[in-house]
């Protein structure tokens, strides 16, 4: 690909550094985002990313530069204050949690915007020495394209200055997650257990909030404060769709964040959209892929599972009906003429019509449980009869069980049994039978076929 | 005194605030406070696309685009919540992040490709530019506000039902899904007309702040709506005036800060839910419970009105000495007990009456909790005399009939404690 080569060759070191900075910023957010998503606190991430704005301005006012540790300290302070205030409002003042989140972060953001504008005017009035100007665009949208231009010399290499703070935050994040792995896990998955075990859930919570605030502030220079939410949430939900294990989720989340850093650079150069929006878009596209194609939780796989289940149930209902038909015939004619079966059209109706019914009949024929008889009627084969017998056994055992233990009237037994018969395997059949002292008939007086 | 432009902006922000306050109440009560935030963010791509396609700043086209993409965003949230394992909060975050990414990308593309493209209206999307409002904007705001107000007035009963008990509304045969859609549409319209002036985040604030403030003052929907509209209108006007007088303060954020100030003041001073009112109510409740404990202690020490030694009383109260002494003093000031010789106290006639009432309620609770331990959830405010308030009169009478007649009030206190704690 010509253009692709151009992107990287002409980009050179700048391309490399931009991708590295984006990847490092993304990685911290991706790890921490997993915990936010699991704890259902994604919006706290959004709230924090807006609310740290006044902290950033205060840090800038104290230090007079956009890269000092003061900015980090002040922003972490405001971040902790934000989550504390949200908690306070919802716990003590009876404001619903979403409303308290909204109240706190919009107010702090407004405060930050006012401060930002005033500070901007002051520095403009001072003659705007350029270098110490806190740029609105930079704070809100990030200037990832230019981070590679602002370098410092480190061990002989020219390294983007932003990379230093971002790497420090990433190291801290990894250390935090490793050290508090167990605690974070319990607090994320079972907060009640955490409290019962005497774990200081609050301490872990506020540590996590402090780390999120750190990651947000470190990232604001790169991607801007308004898109941090995309970096926090999108890789994490992608991981959540792809894995049921915490470690797996974090690994997928990291992978997605790294891939989006690389692809975002390519996309940003090709379409000239700017790096930060492209990061969000690529992360969103990766999420969409996972949403459709994830092996267990994807839409396709869930749809297929549901279809398979529906087809199985439709087929089972059909053979059970054929079996009951055979029973009635043999009762009426004890001489035992062969079962008359069911017309093809009737069998589709019995299986619920539609494509589901076609699939069900086809699947039964494929498994040799149905056979076609003259006059386009269908009937059970021996294999089909065995399967149907087991199903009817489940049905009638359940009816007997319901009648015995729940004292339901006779006409209330069939419906629940009709639904649950598809989920009763041989093990449960045996348990039910021995529980009921091996009944011969169900409450309606029908024979329970032998297992 | 105020110029034409200021008057236009003032009228616009006042109307916006009032309308957002009114509609925000429903969003808040439906637990969808952050819906406005998501809508506002999700509107950006549509706004940009419309701008790109039409090629100029045409208000109807841009608002139409914004509305369409905002509603798409809301539908995506609903889809993710319904059909995947993704929870509410993450779904909102996904839509927020992706639509803002898309919006910014479009902004960049438009800025570089549309020649001389006046990017006004896109660039200041975050803050909004309330000061740039023109008469046509205000007319649109007035029209939408009037439509919202008319809908609320006409469908007040239906909206109330859907807001507080959607299931009941459905069972009653109301088209609750459609009413819900209509409410959401009103929220969307409110957000869209506020966007150019307020920007994304601040529009969300306009929906949330006045409604949350009103919620602190009242439990009645009608009053809450009125209050929220008044608060919204007031902060809109005050914020605009402040930013006009104070020179170049950004109007949108100043309005939000005014709203935050009103919210904080209400948090402290609201009559029922305010912090100060709560503190007072808590103190009063604690005093009442203490008094009940003292009266029971007196009665336990002597079933009749015989004097009880001060030390025995202290022991029975099992508080630290200073607190117990304070308690005794307060009761004596209230003429519930009176000194009976050296170092002893006796119930007054009034005190004896109150003590018997407390003791009756105590034993009723004891009986109730022994018979129906599951009803312990009722026993939430530790005020034993609350039994007459919490239970229907027949239930109390039934319990009373079961009380052992003439039982010794000093019956096993430990068992009672076990049952209630």
List the main descriptive attributes of the protein structure presented here.
heterodimer; A: 451 residues; mainly alpha; elongated; B: 421 residues; three-stranded antiparallel beta sheet; disordered C terminus
How would you explain this protein's 3D organization?
The complex is a heterodimer of chains A (451) and B (421). Chain A is 73% helix and 4% strand. Chain A is mainly alpha-helical and 451 residues long. Mean pLDDT of chain A is 83; it is low at 127-132 and 334-339. Chain B is mostly helical and 421 residues long. Chain B has helices at residues 4-29, 35-54, 59-83, 88-113, 135-154, 156-164, 166-171, 176-198, 200-217, 221-245, 251-269, 275-301, 310-317, 321-333, 349-371, 387-390, 393-402, 413-420; strands at 308-309, 337-339, 344-347. Chain B is elongated and about 95 Å long. The N and C termini of chain B lie far apart (67 Å). The interface between A and B is large, with 62 and 57 residues.
Write a brief structural summary.
The complex is a heterodimer of chains A (451) and B (421). Chain A has 18 helices and five strands. Chain A has 451 residues and is mainly alpha-helical.
Question: What's the arrangement of secondary structure elements?
Answer:
The complex is a heterodimer of chains A (451) and B (421).
Chain A: H1 2-38, H2 42-63, H3 69-92, H4 97-125, H5 136-141, E1 151-154, E2 157-160, H6 161-179, H7 181-189, H8 191-196, H9 201-223, H10 228-242, H11 246-271, H12 275-293, H13 299-332, E3 342-343, H14 344-350, H15 354-366, E4 370-373, E5 377-380, H16 382-406, H17 414-420, H18 426-435
Antiparallel strand pairs in A: 1-2, 3-5, 4-5
Helix pairs in contact in A: 1-2, 1-6, 1-9, 1-10, 1-11, 2-3, 2-4, 2-9, 2-10, 3-4, 3-9, 6-9, 10-11, 10-12, 11-12, 13-15, 13-16, 14-15, 16-17, 16-18
Chain B: H1 4-29, H2 35-54, H3 59-83, H4 88-113, H5 135-154, H6 156-164, H7 166-171, H8 176-198, H9 200-217, H10 221-245, H11 251-269, H12 275-301, E1 308-309, H13 310-317, H14 321-333, E2 337-339, E3 344-347, H15 349-371, H16 387-390, H17 393-402, H18 413-420
Antiparallel strand pairs in B: 1-3, 2-3
């Amino acid at each position: 690909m010509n253009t692709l080569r151009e992107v990287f060759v002409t980009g050179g070191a700048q391309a490399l550094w931009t991708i590295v900075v984006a990847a490092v910023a993304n990685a911290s957010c991706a790890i921490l985002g997993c915990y936010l998503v699991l704890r259902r606190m994604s919006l706290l991430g959004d709230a924090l990313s807006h609310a740290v704005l006044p902290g950033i301005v205060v840090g800038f006012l104290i230090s007079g530069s956009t890269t000092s540790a003061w900015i980090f300290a002040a922003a972490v302070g405001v971040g902790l204050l934000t989550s504390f205030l949200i908690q306070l409002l919802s716990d003590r003042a009876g404001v619903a949690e979403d409303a308290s989140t909204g109240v706190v972060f919009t107010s702090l953001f407004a405060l930050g915007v006012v401060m930002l504008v005033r500070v901007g005017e002051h520095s403009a009035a001072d003659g705007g020495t350029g270098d110490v100007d806190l740029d609105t665009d930079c704070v809100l949208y990030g200037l990832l394209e230019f981070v590679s231009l602002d370098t410092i010399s480190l061990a002989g290499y020219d390294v983007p200055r932003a990379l230093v703070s971002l790497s420090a935050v990433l190291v801290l994040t990894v250390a935090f997650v490793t050290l508090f792995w167990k605690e974070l896990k319990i607090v994320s998955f079972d907060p009640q257990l955490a409290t019962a075990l005497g774990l200081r859930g609050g301490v872990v919570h506020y540590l996590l909030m402090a780390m999120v605030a750190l990651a947000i502030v470190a990232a604001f220079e790169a991607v801007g404060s308004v898109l941090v939410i995309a970096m926090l949430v999108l890789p994490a939900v992608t991981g959540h769709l792809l894995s049921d294990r915490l470690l797996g989720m974090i690994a997928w989340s990291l992978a997605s964040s790294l891939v989006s850093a690389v692809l975002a650079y390519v996309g940003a150069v090709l379409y000239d959209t700017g790096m930060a929006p492209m990061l969000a878009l690529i992360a969103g596209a990766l999420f969409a892929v996972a949403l459709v194609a994830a092996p267990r939780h994807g839409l396709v796989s869930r749809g297929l599972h549901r279809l398979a289940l529906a087809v199985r149930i439709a087929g089972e209902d059909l053979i059970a009906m054929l079996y009951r038909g055979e029973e009635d015939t043999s009762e009426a004619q004890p001489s035992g003429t062969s079962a008359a079966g069911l017309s093809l059209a009737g069998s589709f109706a019995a299986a619920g019509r539609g494509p589901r019914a076609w699939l069900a009949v086809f699947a039964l024929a494929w498994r040799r449980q149905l056979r076609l008889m003259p006059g386009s009627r269908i009937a059970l084969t021996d294999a089909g009869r065995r399967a149907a017998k087991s199903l009817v056994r489940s049905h009638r055992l359940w009816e007997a069980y319901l009648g015995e233990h729940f004292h339901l009237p006779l006409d209330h037994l069939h419906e629940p049994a009709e639904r649950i018969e598809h989920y009763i395997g041989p093990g449960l059949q045996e348990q039910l039978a021995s529980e009921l002292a091996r009944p011969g008939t169900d409450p309606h007086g029908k024979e329970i076929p032998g297992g | 005194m105020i110029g034409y432009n200021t008057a236009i902006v003032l009228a616009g922000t006042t109307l916006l605030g009032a309308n957002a306050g009114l509609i925000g109440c429903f969003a808040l009560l439906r637990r969808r406070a952050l819906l406005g935030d998501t809508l506002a963010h999700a509107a950006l791509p549509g706004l940009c696309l419309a701008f790109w396609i039409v090629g100029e700043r045409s208000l109807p086209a841009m608002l139409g685009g914004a509305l369409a993409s905002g509603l798409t965003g809301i539908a995506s949230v609903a889809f993710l919540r319904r059909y995947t394992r993704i929870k509410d909060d993450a779904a909102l975050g996904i839509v927020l992040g992706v639509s803002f990414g898309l919006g910014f990308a479009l902004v960049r593309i438009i800025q570089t490709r549309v020649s001389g493209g006046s990017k006004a209206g896109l660039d200041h999307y975050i803050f909004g530019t309330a000061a740039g409002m023109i008469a046509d904007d205000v007319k649109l705001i007035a029209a939408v506000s009037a439509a919202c107000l008319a809908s609320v007035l006409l469908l007040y009963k239906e909206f109330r039902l859907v807001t507080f008990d959607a299931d009941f509304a459905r069972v009653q045969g109301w088209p609750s899904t459609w009413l819900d859609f209509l409410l959401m549409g009103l929220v969307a319209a409110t957000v869209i007309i506020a966007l150019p002036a307020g920007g994304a985040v601040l529009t969300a604030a306009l929906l949330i702040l006045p409604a949350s403030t009103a919620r602190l003052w009242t439990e009645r929907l009608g009053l809450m709506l009125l209050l929220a509209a008044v608060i919204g209108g007031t902060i809109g006007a005050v914020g605009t005036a402040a930013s006009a007088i104070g020179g170049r303060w950004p109007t949108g954020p100043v309005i939000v800060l005014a709203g935050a100030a009103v919210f904080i003041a209400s948090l402290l001073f609201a009559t029922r839910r305010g912090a100060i009112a709560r503190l007072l109510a808590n103190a009063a409740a604690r005093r009442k419970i203490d008094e009940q404990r003292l009266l029971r202690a007196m009665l336990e020490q002597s079933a009749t009105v015989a004097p009880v030694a001060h030390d025995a009383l202290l022991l029975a109260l099992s508080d630290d000495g200073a607190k117990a002494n304070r308690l005794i003093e307060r009761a004596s000031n209230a003429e519930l007990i009176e000194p009976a010789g050296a170092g002893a106290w006796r119930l007054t006639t009034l005190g004896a009456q109150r003590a018997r009432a407390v003791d009756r309620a105590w034993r009723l609770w004891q009986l109730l909790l022994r018979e129906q331990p599951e009803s312990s959830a009722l026993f939430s405010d530790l005020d034993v005399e609350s039994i007459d308030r919490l239970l229907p009169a027949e239930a109390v009478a039934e319990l009373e009939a079961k009380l052992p007649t003439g039982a010794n009030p000093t019956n096993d206190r430990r068992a009672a404690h076990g049952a209630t704690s």
